[in-house]
């Protein structure tokens, strides 16, 4: 109950607590970060990656919102969240047979209400700017178009899910074949990686829930924990990449310092990770810079000539939080995957029986 | 040094080692570990147990398989394991439990037997479930300790299990979990980790040794030499055991120059086992 009240209070008042300490305004005195004993900026802590800023700028939107514009949009989201987060009354009637036709997390016969969700409440602020996309290059805020080769892959007879796949909008309504095998289901549904490329790299907001990440840093190792599916990416400092024969779900990450910025270079992805349809040769360079007592600037550049005609870059602010990370034991109680497949087999059996009757 | 004096010194050293040996087994050796910049014993590194505890934490002889059935002259491997041959056999082990047999309550002992009989269906390791504590420590996979002044983090290769050790007690665990809630403190050379808030789903080994959600584990990590760390775990579970008991074992630093944790996301490897029957076109099973 305490948590419920807190959630309600947070969602109603979020818009009044704008995160002002995120990043210095242009022209401000450069921020001097706390340092580890070996003299490097101390990046450690827990960060909440949730934000309202989408990866790509919506069509017809300008790149930067004014403080008032952002506040207005954030207020709308807060009000919407408050309404959606109200407790469900016991007197409501049962949903219609087969669901009410609505999609999304609470769609159909009802699933999560907003109490469970934490999709972000503010636009990310970088250099004092409230951004409308994470993508900053190309300057139109859009991921470059797929190469003809990548488009061809996306049109293949069987297209396997990609690491950026979001929470299923409505299992049951996807195209034929999507429920044939566990391997056809999104990686998040299989508990292999969190959805929405939350583990990355690039580590993106998942616009749903469980967006916390933790960094632990020593001279030789930087560990980046993703809350969802408890994925710990261990960055080996000043090391060399593994041979190309060794592939990892989150790639092989090595790190170095460029001044006060931690640069993490990742290659050797599996052919099952497939971020936005990329090949296993995708190359990600991430740059972590501590810009304020409570914030890191996270910038990523993605290069995969087999998928995009040019590299592209995004950035957003990771806001520190003192919230604890609880265990995200996903696979251990993954009844959903079995039931999604069973449901599909049942539907096929029912349809076959129907056909035979006619 | 003349050979006579040399022999004398050698004999004296051997006698000293001989008399010290039993002590070294039961208490942390007097070794001062290298320090982190904040003055704590440095546990950073990739560690692994080298024993048979994951098969059976108790002292045991070799046996044909983890699941057996009666044969005409004694047990033979259960049918599903038959084709594994020697690969499926249980290697013998001196055990890691201090003192006699595990102090099970009578009901719990019966449950352990039942677990053994249902091993193929019941061992959480088979389904790639999170291993719990202390089992994570002595599974046949390395784990990495990442220790800074403000955090201590354990990453296990098996199933990508993780533990963040709280350095300040966060209070009662709000909810039960597979890996428990760990609170760490230093006692001289030793990192003491108090682990609570477990669920009742994990086991201690492949032999059905188990616990309830009343489990509490106090672990002690003490470096014993540059590449060896002593691991002790005191197990308390009044629902399953009549008294607390203790296990101990050395952990070894992985020596390979390129030692590192690799991917072992076994969730993918158990999908055929767990969901294969629900494929549109099931494979032969």
Greatest interface: A-B, 44 and 41 residues
Strand content of chain B: 15-25%
Distance between the termini of chain B: 72 Å
Order of helices and strands of chain A: HEEHEEEHEEEEEEEEH
Instruction: Provide the structure class of chain A.
Output: alpha+beta
What's the gyration radius of chain A in Å? 22 Å
| Total number of helices of chain A | 4
SSE pattern of chain B: HEEEHHHEEEEEEEEH
Could you give a short account of the major beta sheet of chain A? 9 strands, mixed, barrel
Which regions of chain A are unreliable across 5 or more consecutive residues at pLDDT < 50? 1-24
Enumerate how many helices of chain B there are, as a single number.
Answer: 5
Instruction: Give the mean pLDDT of chain A.
Output: 89
Number of strands of chain A: 13
- What is the average of the pLDDT values of chain B? 93
In helices, the fraction of residues of chain B equals 10-25%
Please summarize the sheet with the most strands of chain B: 9 strands, antiparallel
Distance between the termini of chain A: 54 Å
| Number of extended strands of chain B | 11
Question: Could you say which overall geometry of chain A the principal axes of the C-alpha atoms support?
Answer: globular
Produce the secondary structure layout.
The complex is a heterodimer of chains A (358) and B (285).
Chain A: H1 2-13, E1 45-48, E2 64-65, H2 67-84, E3 125-126, E4 129-131, E5 135-137, H3 148-154, E6 212-217, E7 221-226, E8 231-237, E9 252-258, E10 261-267, E11 283-292, E12 295-303, E13 312-321, H4 335-357
Parallel strand pairs in A: 8-9
Antiparallel strand pairs in A: 1-6, 1-13, 2-4, 3-4, 5-13, 6-7, 7-8, 9-10, 10-11, 11-12, 12-13
Chain B: H1 3-26, E1 45-49, E2 68-71, E3 74-77, H2 106-117, H3 119-122, H4 135-138, E4 143-147, E5 152-156, E6 162-165, E7 181-187, E8 190-196, E9 216-225, E10 228-236, E11 245-253, H5 271-275
Antiparallel strand pairs in B: 1-4, 1-11, 2-3, 4-5, 5-6, 7-8, 8-9, 9-10, 10-11
